[in-house]
Design a protein that fits this description.
The complex is a heterodimer of chains A (292) and B (594).
Chain A (H helix, E strand, L loop, with lengths): L1 H13 L9 H7 L1 E7 L7 E3 L2 E3 L1 H13 L2 E7 L5 H10 L11 E7 L1 H4 L13 E17 L17 E4 L3 H12 L5 E4 L2 H9 L5 E5 H8 L7 E3 L11 E9 L3 H16 L2 H8 L8 H6 L1
Helix pairs in contact in A: 3-9
Chain B lengths: L3 H18 L8 H5 L20 E2 L13 E7 L13 E3 L2 E6 L3 E6 L5 E6 L18 E3 L2 E5 L4 E6 L5 E6 L14 E3 L2 E4 L11 E6 L5 E6 L5 E6 L2 E7 L24 E4 L4 E5 L20 E5 L6 E6 L15 E7 L2 E9 L4 E6 L5 E6 L7 E4 L5 E3 L20 E3 L13 E2 L6 E6 L1 E13 L2 E12 L6 E6 L6 E7 L7 E4 L3 E5 L4 E6 L5 E6 L9 E5 L2 E8 L10 H7 L7 E6 L10
Parallel strand pairs in B: 1-34
Antiparallel strand pairs in B: 2-40, 3-4, 4-5, 5-6, 7-8, 8-9, 9-10, 11-12, 12-13, 13-14, 14-15, 15-16, 17-18, 18-19, 19-20, 21-22, 22-23, 23-24, 25-26, 27-30, 28-29, 29-32, 30-31, 32-33, 34-35, 35-36, 36-37, 38-39, 39-40
């Protein structure tokens, strides 16, 4: 009997979200919007007790505020790739609860990606509209200046240990580029927070990862001892990419409305301020630079 | 080798015992579990015996009578939660215990199909099991019904009430772990592996005291990690798996080597060994981790008392194709020129069937059990694959230009020549009945991929059928020669377990929904019945009040429908379900009336 009650409770919680993504009209009428953000992913989105915090949370709040509706967050457990997240949180819902969000943040804004063909030649993302780039992401190394004076080139890491998040491009890069020459010096960690801890414990002399995260984590260190490197990453296919949002393809009007909100944040410098608040390096997508 | 008369006497004496003692509240003992392959009135192990042969000495239902069997009851698992039902029923004292998708457990009156109780694990938000929300069944011990949950807990329920007696967190589901396999109980210990293909995972096999859930030992399945044994609540170091780290891994990749033993294990009392298989190594791209990468894609023989590894046999060293080596190891003896060989057989995802010496893990012989294998040219005298280097997925360093990497076509596909679904061994025919699939995959490095908003190097792949008219093939294979004695071809891939009986019958189900019975010697299909949804579970048989029963779960799902490609086209019209079907002969065939 008790078990049945628990089951009902779960169902009730799931009802806070939607079985279907919704149109702008439905969102305005219902007075709330559901925005999907990654769980436990500082500095973008995380929960500290009952409080949601991070860059993407601030952006989500601005979106809800501008539309004049209440913000409801759908916390995403990341799938193996963004394809899984789009399926689980925008167009289909995960088979465990079958709920979706109206808008998802931190979706790549990349024509090659949005136009990607699936294994039988159809558009892989035809059910999703990707729009509204809000920043440009890249790679970054932070290093311990007591252990190595500067990072001129990647060649240094034939001799100095470097950490990366496992199964990330930096990890692939460090273990395969330059004929595997950096492999023996590479240490992998479950996430960047642990990699930074590894650097503080002198297990590694440097850490390579996502620029926003590295700059945010760097700000929490002794910035005299630990420095952000300025080296290049030869042989990495993807040097920079833009981050935007996604809605279900049926709801373009919602996409335009949300896109306008975010575009204004980028143009009026509000976006840069949000990133600065979290000490994350901000780069404006070329999308905006071209038309200015 | 098998004395049928003796079994009849045995089962009759059991009936007498039962009649005297009544059926109430008999506990499942270690002896019951050890003798499960001989007993006919109960099924108290996953595998119908600890060795996992899935062979029943029952023969009332046989090649002559099979056409007359009919359903006696059907039980719906209910709710909206109709996904893959991969459970094997267990039977004790006229009660059937099954698991359903979404970590549910049911106790059912085996005679009537009436529900006695139902337990639903409360699953946390945000769990991400990799391959459907399936569960493969319970273990029974004492008065406990023990199973693993999608959020990686072991739960022990009272067999009469369904109330929780103890609950144990095996791993943290937030790190990507879950449990889908049925635990095994050996010498009073409940032993389980762990699922979780995610990176950062280190596979472990763990033993718990079945009565209270206290950890007894844990054994990492990756070279370099310390194993532990618990004595009086104290955690004591018990030797590093493989002796030392870094022998078969570059740098410190062993620290997160994968090798999850997600399918559970079997046990052989003759050699006192547990046999567990291990999953693929991490990260997935083999070029990042030159070396054999112990003990990924391997079979391990483990001491059930201490958790020490006795021997290992690696089917796919330096795996680059996601050929998990988790498949069940079935112990069997055979005669070789007057000498009894204590062998173990396993049919691997990689398409090869291996016969090993189960005393020391030595390779006896190996041969393909699928028609097409392209990743290797064969096996050498030690059973090690002779690679076909052109068919190893590409090195990510070769795609610095950011373009799609080289596409490699490999057979079998990563879903394997055989996946999780257990084969059966008939002591009468000496043949293995192997549910296999003929499919291949295209695989390439995919640079236009993202993960949590970070550019990512994904693997792109498509699974393709090799033949227009079938993917699944049920094969009768002679382990002494490698000869395929007969085969049955199925349009959709086979994903359910197999059962062999002394009635010269072989049972299995297919995604199209049919429970099918074949002549064990000829492969002639003698019976089929559509259960209304796809069968991906394992059938069992037992005897109750002198009548032989057959049961199987029906409910389409599992990993196959989660993948695209042209395989999906073959199965997308199949409807989901969730039920148990139970069959027997009409009364006129009763043993009692003979």
């Amino acid at each position: 009997m008790l078990n049945r009650c628990k089951y009902l409770l779960i169902l009730f919680c799931a009802c806070c979200f939607n079985i279907e993504a919704r149109s702008l009209d439905d969102i305005l009428e219902s007075q709330y919007i559901v925005i999907a953000v990654y769980d436990d992913y500082a500095p973008f989105s995380e929960r500290k007790g009952d409080v949601a915090t991070g860059i993407d949370i601030d952006i989500a709040q601005k979106i809800a505020l501008s539309l004049g509706v209440e913000l409801r967050l759908k916390w995403m457990t990341a799938g193996e790739t963004t394809d899984d997240d789009l399926r689980n949180h925008i167009w289909k819902g995960h088979y465990l609860d079958r709920t979706v969000a109206d808008v998802m943040l931190r979706v790549p804004y990349d024509r090659a990606y949005s136009q990607k063909r699936d294994d039988v030649g159809l558009l892989a993302h035809e059910l999703v509209h990707m729009f509204g780039p809000y920043h440009t992401e890249s790679w970054q190394i932070v290093f311990n200046q007591e252990r190595l004076p500067d990072v001129a080139t990647m060649a240094l890491f034939q001799y100095h240990k470097i950490g990366a998040e496992i199964d990330s491009i930096p990890h692939f890069y460090l273990t395969s580029a330059f004929r595997g020459g950096l492999r023996e010096q590479t240490r992998q960690y479950d996430n960047l927070v642990l990699a930074i801890k590894g650097m503080k414990d002198t297990e590694v002399d440097a850490v390579m990862g996502l620029r926003s995260q590295i700059s945010y984590l760097h700000s929490q260190l002794d910035t005299q001892q630990y420095r952000l490197a300025e080296n290049a990453f030869p042989l990495i296919g993807k040097q920079k990419w833009d981050i935007g949002m996604a809605v279900k393809t049926d709801y373009r009007a919602l996409g335009y409305a949300v896109g306008d909100v975010v575009s204004a944040l980028v143009r009026n410098g509000e976006m840069q301020k949000i990133f600065k608040k979290y000490a994350a390096i901000y780069e404006k997508p070329t999308y905006y630079q071209e038309i200015e | 080798m098998f004395n049928k008369d003796k079994v009849k006497v045995l089962s009759l004496s059991m009936l007498v015992t039962l009649a005297c003692a009544g059926t109430a509240n008999a506990k499942v003992t270690d002896k019951d579990i050890l003798n499960d392959h001989l007993s006919t009135d109960e099924v108290v192990t996953n595998g119908m015996g600890l060795q996992g042969q899935r062979f029943s000495p029952l023969s009332t239902i046989n090649t002559q009578t099979i056409e007359d069997i009919r359903p006696v009851w059907s039980f719906s698992l209910g709710g909206e939660k109709q996904r893959g039902q991969e459970s094997q029923p267990m039977i004790k004292d006229g009660v059937m215990y099954i698991t359903g998708s979404y970590s549910r457990v049911y106790a059912i009156d085996a005679k009537t199909g009436d529900e006695l109780w139902q337990y639903e694990a409360r699953l946390p938000d945000g769990i991400m099991p990799c391959c459907d929300v399936i569960n493969r069944g319970v273990a029974l011990y004492g008065d406990l019904v023990i199973f693993g949950t999608l959020d990686a807990k072991l739960v022990a329920l009272n067999k009469d009430t369904g109330k929780v007696v103890w609950k144990k967190k095996v791993e943290d589901y937030k790190a990507g772990y879950s449990i889908s396999a049925a635990p095994i109980v050996v010498k009073g210990k409940v032993i389980t592996g762990i699922a979780g293909g995610e990176f950062g995972v280190v596979g472990k096999v763990r033993a718990y005291d079945a009565e209270n859930g206290k950890l007894v030992w844990e054994r990492p399945t990756v070279e370099g990690h310390m194993g532990y044994i618990y004595v009086d609540g104290k955690k004591i170091e018990n030797g590093i798996s493989g002796g030392a780290p870094g022998q078969t891994w570059p740098a410190d990749l062993w620290k997160s080597g994968g090798a999850a033993p997600w399918l559970g294990g079997t046990y052989d009392p003759e050699t006192d060994s547990l046999f567990f298989g291990t999953g693929n190594p991490a990260p997935w791209n083999s070029h990042l981790r030159p070396g054999d990468n112990y003990f990924s894609s391997s079979r391990l023989a483990i001491d059930p008392d201490t958790g020490k590894i006795k021997w290992h046999f690696q089917t796919t060293p330096h795996d680059g194709w996601d050929y998990d080596g988790v498949n069940e190891v079935i112990s069997f003896n055979y005669d070789d020129q007057g000498k009894t060989v204590r062998a173990a057989a396993t049919a691997d995802r990689n398409g090869y069937f291996y016969v090993l010496n189960r005393e020391n893990g030595d390779f006896i012989r190996g041969f393909p059990f699928v028609d097409k294998i392209t990743w290797a040219e064969g096996l050498d005298e030690n059973g090690r694959p002779i690679y076909a280097p052109a068919n190893r997925p590409g090195n990510p360093a070769d795609m610095a230009d950011g373009k799609k990497g080289k596409t490699v076509v490999t057979a079998p596909s990563f879903l394997g020549g055989k996946n999780w679904m257990p084969m059966a061994y008939s002591q009468d025919t000496g043949l293995f009945y192997v549910p296999s699939n003929e499919w291949e995959m295209s695989i390439w490095n995919e640079p236009t991929a993202y993960k949590k908003g970070a550019a990512y190097l994904g693997a792109g792949f498509t699974i393709k059928s090799i033949n227009d008219d079938y993917i699944g093939v049920l094969k009768a294979i002679d382990p002494k020669t490698g000869e395929t004695v007969w085969s049955y071809k199925n349009y959709a891939p086979l994903w359910g377990g197999v059962l062999a009986t002394a009635g010269n019958l072989v049972f299995t189900g297919n995604p199209e929904g049919y429970l099918m019975a074949f002549d064990a010697k000829t492969g002639e299909m003698l019976y089929k019945f559509n259960t209304g949804s796809g069968i991906v579970g394992s059938p069992v048989t037992w005897e109750m009040d002198g009548e032989q029963y057959i049961s199987v779960l029906s409910g389409w799902g599992g990993a196959v429908p989660l993948w695209g490609g042209d395989v999906a086209k073959r199965v997308k019209h199949l409807n989901q379900g969730g039920s148990v079907w139970t069959f027997k002969l009409p009364k006129k065939y009763d043993l009692a009336s003979n």
